[in-house]
């Protein structure tokens, strides 16, 4: 895709601090990091979000992910790490090319806040079972 910033980085048309690259994926430093060592891993083929990835693309990307995470862990010794992936504007996606964030966590003051309000009143066990059934019906046709 000609206007995609991540496609341009993958094609070498824009600079990026490349950490890893193979035929299918590329990992590079986020230019607007949340914490020290914030890295992005993307497929080289333009895929807008997780819904568009083929199973082979996803398999390869996630096969590489532990190596990226461990390299960050070894380099910076974070206390933990969040892997974040947003799909669609409503979920916070700003660049519409699939990307997996590796956000090293150091302590509660490092700037990253993955929080949400749990809705236990709206989702009792019976409702969760019903929702699971809906997903299972759709999953059977995809796997």
From TrEMBL:
| Keywords linked to the UniProt accession | Methyltransferase, Transferase
Enzyme Commission number(s) from the entry: 2.1.1.-
Where in this chain does the record put each HIT domain?
5-113
Q: What class of enzyme is it?
A: transferase
Question: Cross-referenced Pfam families, in alphabetical order?
Answer: HIT
Q: Might you name a Gene Ontology BP term for this protein?
A: methylation
This protein's species is Sporosarcina aquimarina
InterPro entries associated with the record? HINT (IPR039384), Histidine_triad_CS (IPR019808), Histidine_triad_HIT (IPR001310), HIT-like (IPR011146), HIT-like_sf (IPR036265)
Q: Which SUPFAM superfamilies match?
A: HIT-like
Molecular function GO labels: methyltransferase activity
Motif Histidine triad motif positions after renumbering to this chain = 97-101
Annotated signal sequence range: none
Q: What is this protein called?
A: HIT family protein
């Amino acid at each position: 895709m000609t206007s995609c910033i991540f496609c341009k980085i993958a094609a070498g048309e824009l600079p990026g601090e490349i950490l890893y690259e193979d035929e299918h994926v590329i990992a590079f430093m986020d230019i607007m990091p949340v914490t020290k060592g914030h890295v992005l891993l993307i497929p080289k083929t333009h895929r807008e979000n997780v819904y568009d990835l083929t199973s082979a693309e996803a398999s390869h990307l996630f096969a590489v992910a532990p190596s990226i995470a461990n390299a960050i862990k070894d380099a910076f010794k974070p206390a933990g790490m969040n892997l974040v992936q947003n799909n669609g504007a409503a979920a916070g996606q700003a660049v519409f090319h699939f990307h997996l964030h590796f956000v090293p966590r150091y302590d509660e003051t490092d700037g990253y806040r993955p929080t949400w309000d749990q809705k236990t009143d709206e989702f009792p066990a019976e409702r969760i079972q019903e929702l699971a059934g809906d997903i299972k019906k759709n999953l059977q046709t995809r796997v």
